[in-house]
Amino acid sequence: MSPSLNTTEIITLLDLLESPSTFQEISEKFRREFPDSDFHFKVCDALCQLLQESDLLTGPEQHLKAAFLIYDVERDSRQNPFLSLLIKLLHPPEIVTSLARLSTQARWFLSQLLAAPSESLPLLELTAKEVLSKAVEESAICDTSNLQVLLMEHLAELPAYDKIGVSCIVPAPKPGVHSEELRRESAIDILTCDAGSFGPLYHRLAPSLHLGEDVLTWIDPNSEYIGKLEPFWDDSMCSSSAPATEVKKMMARALKLALTPNQQLQLISDLKQEPRLVFQLGLSPSRLPDLVENNPPVAVEVLMLMMDSAQIVEFYSALVNMELSLHSMEVVNRLTTATKLPVEFIHQYVSNCIATCENMKDKYVQNRHVRLVCVFLSSLIRNKLIDVQELFIEVQAFCIDFSRIKEAAALFRLLKHVDPPEGSPENKSDVSNK
Length: 434
Prior knowledge:
The chain is 53% helix and 1% strand. It has helices at residues 7-17, 23-33, 40-52, 60-73, 83-90, 104-115, 128-132, 145-157, 180-191, 243-254, 261-273, 288-294, 296-305, 312-321, 326-338, 343-359, 363-382, 392-401, 406-416, 425-433, and strands at 166-167, 197-198. Strands 1-2 form a two-stranded antiparallel ribbon. Helix 12 crosses helix 13 (296-305).
């Protein structure tokens, strides 16, 4: 472990926390006092210890400045190594601990920095006193759930023994130190120690004292037994004896990014050879939209193989309710061509497409989606893949609403060649004319 802060550095840090300057000035002064970027982690670690033994700081202003510096020092890195502490400060645990509890104003300020760094630059011109004097409600605190998810994903990647440890900081057995001089002395005493955490120690197995058939022994290069050992070759190594494993790997990749055409063909071929594998891939309805957007041909094949299963209803529901896109329409179009889909599914999907277009605020995006939906519906009608009679009125109203778009006008003309359903205004007018 690297050496801890010395007394001079700690006093400089505490003076910085007591400064009445703005946050921008504190940031600049910190970098002047501690120019070595490799030293910043050690300073932030000291600030974490001060926040976890909150009696070492004088009050809310120092708590806020310490939290700000922990954020500010690492704001240019891809991931702040002290993110877990910042989240605890934003969402303090219900149980009483020695961790500093920030006020609503301080938590609002910190959440603004974490959620929108570029938009929160004007806040850096404020002082801690000005921030704490603002009238801020709990509801104004920005949502940082995405950061919590990022932290959980990062922690999940760590080995189990890296997550185990007991902090070296022991809370004071009595209320905080009231004297400023004693408080500083306590801070210096703690921060000059090689603090951190007590982690578990791991030892190798002790070698046996005798040789035996049922006893583990260390391999001794000078042992007479070495000459009698023969290599054992595993013939199944690197073989395709477990195709399911390769298919699972490829499917996991397909959920994250677009496969090459050859990879798509290989995955589809493997699924066709072993149709039962489709139920062993761990694909859930909630992940279907990812597969549709990244690899539509694979999504079509997976849904085709699931047609006779009880799970297909949930996958249909996920497909209907996913965000409207060219790929989702491509998948539905190919499914209607390859098999007979439930009528209610097609009707619900078409209705959702129309409703999505109608509710869009951005005119450019709306026009683009209307064109896609019109081409999609025209294809279904021309190929007689849907019974347009049951959707006639809804589709016709859609065409009229967007008649300024060329594709909508073309779809409207196509509808004119389709007999309207009985009871519709068009049908009644035709009958009266006759």
